[in-house]
Amino acid sequence: MKTQLFLTNHGIIHPIAVICDDKDLDNIITLFSLFQSSPACEKALSVLSNTPNVKIDFTRDNLKFQGQWLADKKEIHIKNNLSLEKTLQTFIFELCNANNPALVSSKLKYSNFLTADAYATYIETAEHQSFKMAVTLYLEILSRNNDALKQPSDIEVKGLKMLFGDETYLAYVKQNGHYDYYVKGYIQAMQKRNSFFVEQQSTSLVADPSSLPTENEIFGMK
């Protein structure tokens, strides 16, 4: 069974829906209690709440990576069965993505980019800014909750901060498959678009041009 809650505390403009499995409810309540111990995190959540009908879903079990922000649906998805620390880290990162002006739907249209690499590089560059903010926010939460969260080692913290470098971060996401995920998405979208136009061209003698979908409709990004 699933439970739906709404974040409506001080600073929230529009209520934010939170969905979790019943068995995870206590952990999610703990997560938000830890999250809201940081004024900077509360501010980030308030920024997100400027957008109405946002949903945070902690029940996903079929994600390729630990989380995702879907700008067109206004939804944050977090993989379930992660540790409290990983769930919190992932939520903060996707929250930063949601608040990142470089990652709004209008800037992520495939038609804005000439190549798959240009598309993937743009997203990863934007997400790198989110990553740096997310690390800063998470370390602040750690400093305020020493006993409630597993503390990373000095080596782990150093590794995170090494990823603050642009080239280091890009190399990392290319190695872990994150970059390729966006490349494949772009290629598949272009193939779908091209096959659509080939099909329409073959029936152009009988097709009504006014009935054809626009490019935005093809990509599902109205």
UniProtKB/TrEMBL annotation:
<protein>
    <submittedName>
        <fullName>Uncharacterized protein</fullName>
    </submittedName>
</protein>
